[in-house]
Amino acid sequence: MDDKKRLVELRELLTKYNYEYHVLDKPTIPDAEYDHLFRELQDLEAKYPEMDDPSSPTKHVGYEVVSEFKKIIHDKPMLSLGNVFNHDELVEWAKKIEEVMPNVEYAVEYKIDGLAMSLIYEDGLFKQAVTRGDGVEGEDVTSNVRTIKSIPMKINYKERYDIRGEVYMPKASFEKVNEQRRKDGEEEFANPRNAAAGSIRQLDSRIAASRGLNAFWYHVPEDINASSHTGSLDYAKKLGFRINDTIRTYTNIEDVWKRIEEVTEFRHDLPYEIDGMVIKVNSYDQQKVLGFTSRIPKWAIAYKFPAEEVRTIVEDMFITVGRTGKCTPNAKFKPVKVAGTTIGYATLHNEDYINEKDIRIGDTIIVRKAGDIIPEVVRSVKENRTDKQKKFKFPNVCPVCGGKLVRYEDEAAHFCINTDCPARLVFGIAHFGERDAMNIDGLGEKKVEAFYNAGILSSFEDIYKLHTKRDTILNIEKFGQKSFDNLVEAIENSKKNSLERLLFGLGIRQVGEKAAKVLASNFKNMDNLMNASVEDLSNIKDIGPITAEGIVDFFNDPNNKRIINDLKLFGLNMEYIDTSIDSNSEFKDKTVVLTGTLTIYTRNEATKLLEDLGAHVAGSVSKKTDYVIYGTEAGSKLTKAQELGVKTLSEEEFKKML
Ligand code: IVH
Predict the structure, then answer these.
(1) Which of 111, 171, 469, 608 is catalytic?
(2) Which residue's CA is the closest to the ligand 1 atom numbered 22?
(3) What is the pLDDT of residue 254?
(4) Percent of the chain with pLDDT over 70
């Protein structure tokens, strides 16, 4: 057979095997054979680049690095759902529906715990994957979603098709990913949902590809191919989408509840996490009658599983010290499985919390996961008390440095006030390097701790001397030349950051990311800010008097003055770099129409740019239109603008005006 024919045949074969394996869960050939054929196809595609096809099964592994995710406005908003938490609330919801329409059929399905995604197909080809974002506008994460092998690259449907569902990380992938992270000394993901979201936000699609993600599809907005929700999913299934086949329909809400109770029993045994059940009125006609409130459909509701509560025993209590010196008590308890994962620790917040709940070492306690993520002690079981339990005595010295602890008036927490306390230094420096602060990749907690222990990093200034410590760093376990080079580069780049990042990184009390931005944009540079009085600061919207005082105190401290001066000498930028667009723009309050094929911007981008400048983007040209921006092949709208004497701008001219 000639090569090109073989290439086409392989594509068809592998697409079929892919579907059998990843969608139907029924592989028909051994993995090794699949891999062999896959490589054969890759080789042929390399040999005949003119045969390129975006729907080839090899595109699932093709990798792409993007610099950022483009913002995309959804065809139809991606809505969220209202919640009910128990039988009575569910019945109440159904009653309201059945009052207006008898004979309702409910579709009942798993609420998959992942992140919502919209897939767009055009001309039968996979075009785009967009996150939910704020519901109106999401991010284009196509390169990452493409790596999910159960997603069809090609469907037998030529119209534009928008199908929505959930990208998630199966429990098995989650365990694997976390095991690897443990080995690499990286922070583990708290749960599969965070892990899935973190993977989808990677700019390099090879990372997402390595995370074993999968997806279920559960919603086609206004599907013209069906008259009911389940009908539309049947159709989607025929097109090749992975549909969860545990969906059931009922006409009686009590039967719906029985199904919920049944699933509650085995939900932790499923290979993926679900955090509830979704109940939808099945008929599209009935859905239309019920309609929407502003944000959520009235024809659907989510039932959320209650947080599972488990008994265990407190083995110990201990204090951890954070970057601000805040001392947090924690409980160590006999490890127990809660909501699918094993937990052994929970925060006890502060001394008052321990006293109010009267939690003692040796107590039987009830634990759960708040929001299904963070372990929390619900209460101690007083009936189980013997004479063995011990009250925890809150220490008066720091467990890390031995310095005195103070508890300020009106504060529930104790603080270690020794600025040289190793815990404060390590966490403070790690915070300085965090992504939202100075964004120094490779300077996480574990690394900072290792450098601190090696005696080369105990202040912000030391960060900017690390490039001279190559030999010491290379001696540290798991640190190679490449990581060293990357770290030095990230440190060098951080010098160019806009002022707000530095302000946030310095860890000034009460100055979070938002306040840092407000301060930077108001004062423009560090010197102005350092000279500001409490009054100057309080005059700024969003800065309260306590924050204002905290800032002045911070800059009055000679030690802090020295730190800032040193950082200046190391070449750190101390100016605010304004990246927002001019609000006195020509387009403010103007009505603008876009027409033709835009080539510099996508339509979404142009719309977003204009809206950011305060313009209203309209669909048709009238006398009230202020500008028509045209691309290539512009037709009647441009002619009409010219007839009406409306100002016209080519896309090029528009770009220049920005
Ligand atoms: S339907 C207009 N069905 O839950 C209806 N959502 O709390 C659109 N979710 O944003 C949603 N499983 O991310 C629907 N079987 C399911 C779902 C589901 C999980 C998520 C989805 C949504 C959130 C609402």
Answers:
(1) 111
(2) 80
(3) 97
(4) 99
Residue 228 scores a pLDDT above 90: yes
Question: Which pLDDT does position 383 carry in this prediction?
Answer: 87
Report the separation in Å between the CA atom of 507 and the middle of ligand 1, taken as the mean of its atom positions: 38
Distance 414 CA to ligand 1 centre (A): 42
At position 59, the amino acid (one-letter code) is K
Q: Whose CA is nearest to atom 7 of ligand 1?
A: 81
Check pLDDT > 80 for residue 167: yes
Rounded to the nearest angstrom, the distance between the alpha carbon of 112 and the centre of ligand 1 is 8
Place of tokens 């009054």: 535
The rounded percent of the chain whose pLDDT value lies above 90 is 73
Burial zone of 156 (CB within 10 Å; 0-12 exposed, 13-18 middle, 19+ buried): exposed
pLDDT over 90 at 501, yes or no = yes
Q: What gap in Å lies between CA 588 and CA 570, rounded to an integer? A: 41
R_g of the chain, CA atoms, integer Å: 29
Ligand 1 atom at shortest distance from the alpha carbon of 79 = 2
- Band (580; pLDDT cuts 50, 70, 90): low
Question: Residue with structure tokens 């911070």?
Answer: 554
| DSSP 8-state assignment for residue 267 | G
Give the model's pLDDT for residue 582. 61
Structure tokens at 375: 């372990």
For the whole model, what pTM was predicted?
0.58
From the list 375, 435, 603, 577, the residue with the least C-alpha distance to 496 is 577
| Residue found under tokens 């697409």 | 15
Alpha-carbon distances of 381 from 161, 308, 356, 385, 495, rounded to whole Å: 55, 17, 14, 7, 54
**Ligand 1, atom 10: nearest CA belongs to which residue?**
80
Distance, CA of 87 to CA of 93 (rounded, Å)? 10
Give the binding-site residues of ligand 1, using a 6 Å CB cut-off: 79-81, 109, 111-112, 116, 166, 218-219, 278, 297, 300, 302
Residue corresponding to tokens 């000034």:
508
Our answer to whether residue 95 is catalytic in this structure is: no
Note the pLDDT of residue 619.
Answer: 85
- For CA atoms 572, 573, 574, 577, give the dihedral sign: negative
Compute the distance from residue 279 Cα to the ligand 1 centre, in Å: 10
Q: Which of 169, 278, 281, 295 to mutate to test the pocket of ligand 1 (most atoms within 8 A of CB)?
A: 278
Ligand 1 center from residue 84 Cα (angstroms): 14
Least Cα distance to 312 among 332, 333, 294 occurs for 333
Mutate to test the pocket of ligand 1, among 74, 78, 80 (most ligand atoms within 8 A of CB): 80
Q: What is the pLDDT of residue 395?
A: 95
Report the SS3 class of residue 249: strand
Arithmetic mean of pLDDT over the chain: 92
Residue nearest to atom 17 of ligand 1 (CA): 111
Pocket test for ligand 1, best of 106, 166, 277 (most atoms within 8 A of CB): 166
Please tell me the distance from the alpha carbon of residue 165 to that of residue 220, in angstroms, as a whole number. 9
pLDDT tens-digit readout, 272-309: 999 999 999 999 999 999 998 877 999 999 999 987 88
Please state, in angstroms and as integers, the Cα–Cα distance from residue 186 to each residue in 34, 86, 231, 444, 466, following that order. 33, 39, 45, 8, 21
Q: Classify 384 as helix, strand or coil.
A: helix
H-helix or E-strand spanning residue 329? strand 326-338
* Ligand 1: residue whose CA is nearest its atom 1: 219
Q: Lowest-pLDDT range, 179-193, 506-520, 548-562?
A: 179-193
The CB density around residue 275, as the number of other CB atoms within 10 Å, is 19
pLDDT at 583: 59
- pLDDT tens digits, 593-603: 998 888 888 88
